[in-house]
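Weekend entry, working from home. Most of the wet-lab plans are on hold until the incubator is repaired, so I used the time to fold the two sequences that have been sitting in the queue since the last round of cloning. Logging both here for the record. First:
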Amino acid sequence: MLQAHPAVLSDLVERYESLHAKTDRTAVDPALRQQLDDVTYTLCVITGTRSLEQALAAARRRAGRGCGQASTAVPSSSTSASSSHRRTMPTTAIAG
């Protein structure tokens, strides 16, 4: 089975955490929300999971980060990947 490179997983987790921190505010820019949804979807696809919590745990485990440095709080609106996403996983994210 193909698995993502640990550096790619680490980058995705960091990107998620950064975007999540920015969207914790009441008024969220729709473009920022879309980026968060996209990274959430990518994490789920790349880790083969169906929920954000599972994806973050798997990505951190595979990247060797353990529990991570930032908060793992997940907003209820982004706990699972939306089936409406049509983005594909970047081919550079896969290591053989």
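Second, folded right after the first finished:
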Amino acid sequence: MNPPNREQVLAVSAGWVAVVLNVVPGLGAGYLYQRRWTAYWITSALATAWFVAGAALSANADAGTDPDNQLLGLLGLLLLSGITATEAGLSVKRVRACLDQSSTQ
């Protein structure tokens, strides 16, 4: 018996689970569920770069602007989780549509 290929694994995954996992804990956990390692590592690298940039930029900031920096950091991570959640859901939808078309032909 052959192991399932990438598209089959993605098609049988629940799209809503991947979306929720990318939003709630964030940082690409939905990609782990979908076994999409490249997307996960790209998301992890972007989140790490965001943290490093925030730390570097806030190193010389005064205490009065600290809440603004925290808000900007949080908004960036929320944007990243929103984009990855949307992409994870659309990927499942796209693969299922392609598999449905190929099975009907």
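Plan for Monday: verify the second prediction. The chain has five helices and no strands.
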